[in-house]
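Whiteboard transcription, Tuesday session. T.W. wrote the structure tokens on the left side:
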């Protein structure tokens, strides 16, 4: 079973670099102030290209927090007018707690909402976002959207040393949502050579909770994508690993920081048949070593 959405059919534009949460696992907090959002001219260029070529069916509007843009509904309307069949926003969900805001976005053409859920309840979620009330508002938004025709929701959870044990509980807490089509679990890595925040958890410790969450989400009929975890460890759930992403338009300085992570460091890299696995990164190896006794090369390719 793979993800529900074809990444190649979407293009993602980073249109905002402010955020009103202070998530402990934020990857770009050190660069947020100097990264520039995509310009309105670039936004229009992407729309013009799609109007001419129909290259993509979906547009993702993202950023540190895209809902801080006052013109978000107008961006969605313009995207729909240029031939995009779907407009998705990637958000922490705080502003979705206002039902009127949800309605404005849906009326403007936003039909997919990718919402970050950090914990399984208000106490655990808010302890990770560092903003009281953030869980309640995100949940209110998801439940508001759940009652709206033509809407699909997705969730993203960052898996850290402080959250891995919460994964099954998150699936259970969201089980009542009818329009939640896909859950994603992004295993944390710092954009640096060391885990200065002590948020990287060992794969062996994460594994049983991650497997339980994937299995429970699938039992609810949801697609699942796991990011940045060794495929060999997932075993019969290895098809949940999906490290691909839509084409991302973002300030080039982001990629210079991203490259510091040093992915693909696996002792089995030359002999493993996996096409999805990113191996280990520099911060993980500095903390836990190469995991030579844990990792195993895949011998056959998935179809």
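and on the right, the sequence the group agreed on:
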């Amino acid at each position: 079973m793979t993800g529900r959405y074809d990444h190649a059919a979407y293009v993602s534009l980073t249109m905002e670099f402010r955020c009103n949460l202070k998530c402990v696992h934020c990857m770009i907090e050190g660069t947020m102030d100097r990264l520039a959002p995509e310009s309105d001219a670039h936004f229009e260029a992407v729309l013009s290209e799609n109007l001419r070529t129909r290259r993509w069916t979906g547009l993702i509007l993202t950023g540190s927090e895209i809902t801080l843009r006052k013109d978000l509904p107008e961006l969605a309307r313009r995207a729909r007018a240029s031939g995009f069949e779907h407009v998705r926003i990637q958000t922490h969900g705080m502003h979705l707690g206002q039902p009127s805001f949800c309605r404005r976005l849906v009326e403007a053409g936003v039909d997919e909402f990718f919402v970050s859920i950090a914990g399984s309840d208000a106490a655990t979620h808010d302890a990770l976002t560092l903003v009281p009330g953030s869980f309640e508002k995100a949940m209110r938004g998801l439940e508001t959207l759940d009652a709206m025709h033509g809407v699909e929701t997705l969730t993203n959870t960052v898996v850290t040393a402080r959250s891995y044990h919460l994964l099954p509980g998150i699936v259970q807490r969201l089980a009542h949502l009818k329009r939640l089509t896909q859950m994603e679990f992004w295993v944390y890595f710092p954009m640096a050579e060391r885990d200065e925040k002590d948020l990287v958890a060992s794969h062996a410790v994460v594994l049983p909770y991650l497997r339980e969450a994937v299995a429970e989400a699938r039992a609810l009929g949801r697609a699942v994508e796991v990011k940045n975890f060794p495929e060999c460890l997932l075993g019969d759930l290895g098809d949940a690993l999906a490290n691909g992403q839509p084409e991302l338009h973002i300030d080039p300085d982001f990629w210079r920081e991203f490259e510091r992570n040093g992915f693909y460091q696996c002792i089995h890299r030359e002999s493993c048949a996996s096409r999805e696995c990113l191996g280990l990164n520099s911060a993980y190896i500095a903390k836990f070593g190469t995991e030579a006794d844990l990792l195993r090369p895949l011998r056959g390719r998935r179809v």
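Someone added at the bottom: The first helix runs from residue 40 to 53.
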